Amino acid sequence: MTTRSLLTLGLLASTAFAAPNWAATTTTTVTKTKTTTEHETKTTTTTVHETKTKTETETKTTTLKPTVTVTGSCSASAPLSSSTSVSSTSSSLSTASSSASSATTSPSSVTSATSTTSSTINTNPTITKTATDVPTATASGLNVAAKNAGKRWLGTAADIPGTGEGADPYYLAEFNNANEFGEATPANTMKFFATEPQQNVFNFTGGDYFVQQAKASGKEIRCHNLIWANQLSDWVTSPAVPWTNATLTAALRNHVTKVIEHFGDDCYSWDVVNEPLSDSPAGAWAANVWYNTIGEEYFFQAFDAATQAVKANNLAVKLYVNDYNIEYLGNKSIAMQGLVKELKSRSLQIDGVGLESHFIAGETPAKADQ
Predict the structure, then answer these.
(1) Model pTM above 0.70
(2) Once rounded to an integer, what is the mean pLDDT over residues 16-21?
């Protein structure tokens, strides 16, 4: 009988009997135990050793033997033209054969194979060069020819800036060619009228531009010129107050000093006085505002001011006197020698004489005449 049945009977009985005493205990214990133990062990050991040896060596040897030849020509009909030819470059390539070797497989006592693989490949070719591999070029040009003959340079005059020369790419290409020209002379930008347009008011814009242009291609510069009869400023040739010896001498010395100081060692040399001598009669002093006002002393005053400017500024600039028609032996060339001797006797700097070289082919003096 279950506990629920007993309780039901008890309730019913309580209605029929007066407070009976019940003492009944029912205990039911159900125990079910199931134990399952499973052990499954699987051990698999696999060892594989495989040994392979493979060596590959590849050696490449490249020998380059370029040959470059540059030649140039300049003809009288086209003095600023040049041609360049470059021979083809040849090279030989030799490749060494590659070799490979492989090792055998050696099984072990546990029936396993051992494998080791190694590979060596030389992907960098070995290049061997000899002295003959260095390209050789033979430069040509007027300046190169002059230097090969033992001269310092072959130069040119240029009117830059202010003219079409500075804007012409073909002209500039030749001007900047260091093989053709190793020196440059400003045609106008350093003359009196350009550098001192008003008394004691200086303008070096054009001269500075010329220096920059010339030095860009490694040229030396012969600066031209400080004192000359022509291309003077109006205030020199037409002064508001007539010049005296003292006032014009002061103006001359001031100009020489200021211009030398400004350009300094950008100039290899200066033509201090240009064309001091006359052709008619040959060897006489040329008439100009300087000579007419100061006399022949103007020439020595100019060199004295230049000498002092060079010393005061510790410059390496060389000082020249420049003239034409003095390449022949004659009165004019003899007079020029006399001027140089007088400069030296006064301990004034004089480093050379410039020949303007207005030469005509076939009419220049022979070496024996010089």
Answers:
(1) no
(2) 37
